[in-house]
Amino acid sequence: MKKFLSLLIAASMPILKVILMTAVGSILALDRIGILTEDATKHFTNVSFYLFSPALVMTSLARTVTLKTMATLWFLPLNIALTFIIGSAFGWVLIKITRAPRHLKGLILGCCASGNLGNMMLIIIPAICKEKNSPFGNPDACNSYGMTYASLSLAFGSICFWSYVYNIVRISSKTSASDNTNEDIETSRTAEIEAKMSEDMPPHGLTRSPPDDEHVEVLPSDASEQRAKGSFLFQCKKCLKMITGRINLKLLFAPSTIGAIIGFCIGVVPQIRKLLIGETAPLRVIQDSASLYGEGAIPTITLVVGGNLIKGLKGTDIRAPVIIGILTVRYILLPVFGILIVKGATHFGLIDADPLYRFVLMLQFTLPPAMNIGTITQLFGVGETESSVIMLWHYPLASISLTLWCILFMWLVT
After folding, report:
1. Residue pLDDT, tens place only, 309-335
2. How many Cβ atoms sit within 10 Å of the Cβ of residue 207?
3. Using CA atoms, how far apart are residues 273 and 178, in angstroms rounded to an integer?
4. Exposed, middle or buried: residue 108 (CB in 10 Å: 0-12, 13-18, 19+)?
5. Could you tell me the residue range of the domain that residue 13 belongs to?
6. CA-CA distance, 36 to 386, in Å (whole number)?
7. What does the alpha-carbon distance between residue 362 and residue 340 come to, in Å, rounded to a whole number?
């Protein structure tokens, strides 16, 4: 019983910190307070999207990624990719079962696929290491290795998030908007065609015979096959243009993705690393300045999420099965798969036997949806209220789910 209570305290304290930080954002967004207004939330979102988040990803990667760490921790980015793949598969099944509207498909896929690998990991891991009852040994060594794992999780999670979820939501929002436009255009065209046909139709009871010089030409079979072939090639060309039009490389590389690429290059290339990283680096002021910007990402995003929760309290038309389904995917199905994958990788000798490392790998499957999803919905102006409702349910319940799963993970790895 005593061991259970110690694990409970070590696992619950980090979750309480996130809840308290989110509660501050909710209080500031209240109408009677009026600090975190709708315009202020949008400004916070833009600053975090274009400056704070890229700086955080870049500095985290530049500090922690080297050729040596990539060789020893190669399974960590693969594990993150598996969380996105498995979560997307469950999200696709959920969309089919609930028959979710088209404009919410990207939001549902994003919530099921992407966990909060950013501030949650950076808060949970150090807090667990600093607890007196932590099962991971020396607090200083635990904190050093834990921050490396958390920083790598943040960096590679951001690459996956901004390369995948960002574009999924973007395409979904554009598709829903274009569908509405096409429906309006199709309705107007149908009305025009019907009006024209009514004008060209002869009076009732009369038939119009073609002139003598008009005749019907019967095409040979080869010509008809050629026309069908041409039609098929035309359709293929049309589909290819549609795909290339939707996948814009400029939009594929979001600011955080570009920051990850820069940070990866700094960390891997020794010459650049010596110039920027370390107490004796001649250009360390650049890295230090970027780190200061990056430190603003976590409180900014957390405040925005807290402000969005107030929108969720006002209600929306999102159906309960969708919310329950996302909760089931993120808090039940994915953690079970995480245990199986980590246990299997350990059995086959693919990962190190370090308990903290295995704990982090399991934890990656258990986190609530990424807070940046709220940022994306605000950027594209689609699913903002629905995203707020999803976060409203997930983050309070995360205090229970994450605590219980963390206790189980600690017991399994130690």
Report:
1. 776 666 666 788 999 999 999 999 999
2. 5
3. 46
4. buried
5. 2-28+36-176+258-413
6. 19
7. 9
